[in-house]
Amino acid sequence: MPDPSSPAGLREQALNLLASGKAASRADLVETMQVAPSTVSTVVRRLIDEGTVLEEGVGQSTGGRRPRILRLRDAGGVFCVSELGARHARVGVCAPGGRLLSAAEFAIDIGAGPDAVFAEIATAFEALVAVAAPGRHLLAVGIALPGPVEFPHGRIIGPARMPGWSGYDAQAHLRERFLVPVVVDNDAKAAAVGEHVTRGDAGDMIYVKAGTGIGGSLVSGGELYRGGHGLSGDVTHVRVADSGERECSCGGRGCLETMASGAALAHLLAERGLPIADTRDVIAAALNADPTVVTMVRQAGRLLGVALSGLVNFLNPDSVVIGGALSSLDVYVAAARGMLYERCLPPMTQSLSIEASVAGPDAALIGLGHLVRATADVRP
Ligand SMILES: [Zn+2]
Fold first, then answer.
1. Cα 54 to averaged position of ligand 1 atoms, centre (Å)
2. Does residue 1 lie in a domain region?
3. Distance 257 CA to ligand 1 centre (A)
4. Rounded distance from Cα 57 to ligand 1 centre (Å)
5. pLDDT, tens only, 84-139
6. Are residues 273 and 294 in the same domain?
7. Which residues contact 201 (CB under 8 A, 6 or more apart)?
8. Distance 182 CA to ligand 1 centre (A)
């Protein structure tokens, strides 16, 4: 995501609006992008010249000349994208404009290692394209992984929950397998992009993916903040008080992950004798209003709020968005929100929006569609 006011940023905005159907003409673009008609004309002219956008027919007039309809060219190909979790993979097919056309989910075991997992993903891509976009060829691939990923090299660095993946060059492997441009990124970063694109106006946003693990990301000035080696956003190993000083997979103690993640909740509840094996069980029991589970989920949300409060005070964002599977639990999001109000300086929270994700389970796939389009050379 380039600077929104730069030529690349304007191009990106225009493509997003045309891809999402929020704009279909130059006049729509002028209105939604809030820039001068001459700026839109320049951007559109370039998109038409490079063959990304076609001009066809005329639309409804709101007085004056009827506007020409703008449409993204169908390149005859698609992007395939996938977000891997510890136990599930979500796969999707995106149009060349980045729009998600179709998605599916299936069980995997990430501990089986990259070769086995990517073989399954490749099969799932073929099956999904056969149904959602039959006959279309593969233009590029985007993969989001639940661990730290070096950017732009796509190498995985010491992921605690992914045995066999540490140091694995996912990007090189996937390029060899699929023979197309490949983008590999961290899941919380991809989801933050998807959320930002879906919301359109989230401003500076802290995004937290709270699922089996917890990941975070910052979008500032319309751009993903990656940090020196692409490893920004590690909120999960922030040490929180009242955490019981439990040992963490990172080797430390008292990390947020040991109390507020889906894996930690499942573990803590199983210790109390409840029949809970994973994050899905935690969510089902909380939705069933099991009092022990609801109390633990509320405490987890409060600890997430504690960890985020330092970031909010430091960064003064416009929005905090909580995504991932646990964001489907109002009690979790409300507890985090309550703690942010309690711990942050009042001027910080006055205009701060603290909400559950609107992009939902497809956030990372939507984000990957946009990251692939922005990164890979996939022009028609
Ligand atoms: Zn830790």
1. 50
2. no
3. 6
4. 57
5. 988 899 999 998 778 899 999 999 999 899 999 999 999 999 999 999 888 888 98
6. yes
7. none
8. 30
